[in-house]
Amino acid sequence: MLSTELCRTYENILIEELRPAMGCTEPIAIAYAAAILRDALGAAPEAITVGLSGNIIKNVKSVIVPSTGGMHGIEAAVAAGVVAACPERKLELLGTLTEADRARIAPYIAACRMTVDELVTPCTFDLSLRGEAEGHSVHVRISEHHTNVVLVERDGVDITADYAESATNADTKDGRADRALLNVKDIVDFAAQADLTRIAPYLRRQVEMNMDIAEEGLRNTYGASIGKLLYRDGEADLRTRAKAFAAAGSDARMSGCELPVCILSGSGNQGITASVPVVVFAREQGASEEELLRALVAADLITVHLKTGIGCLSAYCGAISAGCGSGAGICFLNGGRYYEIAHTVVNAVAILSGTICDGAKASCAAKIAMAVEAGLMGYEMTCTKRQFYGGDGIVTKGVENTIRNVGKLARDGMCETDKEIIRIMLGKAE
Q: Does domain 25-162 match CATH 3.30.1330?
């Protein structure tokens, strides 16, 4: 039996991770910082200096910012946050913008003296906004993850406590539940045994939000419409429908759809990828709600476990981790437990590890479809007694060792790849 303390930690991880957000989370984080800036100044900033880590620039460059009338880019995200002016809504603040508010965004961009620079920082997720208005100045900094406000300073006075999130775990440096305690065996045991009372509302919200945006992506044309391409008016088989629904959610989200998504590992695309295929399988198979929720626990926590060693942002496409998670969740749904899920994860990561992240954009939907395919293939290999063995590339004997290898590959091995991707995207490559 798992200890009460470990169960509470896993519950806290899910509660911290399964958060609603509208639009791509990097532009939203910028908008959130801008809303704090506006609130702390007490007026709309007349001048703003924006400093962003390269990975944030990469993820904001091409994606449409919701509620802006189709605008994209850093300036649009900043302006939307200033106009929204409701930092208490955090990653949902863009949902408060009215038609009248939207009409104010472009004029504000034209009027505000705004400069954007790349931050020189070892942290892949790091953003700094400095603003001035009516003789006052404010500095806002968010680091490590999307709502982690580490500094708010007004006229040299530290007022961070007015905006910082409340901690769930005082024993960790950022006050969050300790993800280092995640491992595949305990995750599977927790999914099978846990009292779902405390986490069920978060899982239900994940199902509702992420299926809503997936269905929206199948109804209408967004981006390259990868989901609709795969779905074929409902004629596709179950496996392909699972990929289609997940891709369609990303189609809509990357194109500025104003429906919220329940994120995972700080990403809406990863939240969609980990959950939607599991829901599609569960509904097709007539699974009970409890069976679905327990399968989602497995999918979500496996995804977070894989992503923890990689870090918040990197050159490694996070959808691959979530595709492995969805394969694990479908395996759990069909009766698989530790042995089967461990092999599913190892098989899946061996297939697509190393897929690059070159920013948030329409093609993420296609990567998601391939990530779900890898998860499903990893599961089907397990069902038919096929597997990759230690010594096959980055695969090492033991699922935890292989997961550790993936983290090293993405976090350390792909550092130069990440820099080159950013140089290419910013037009600085020789």
A: yes
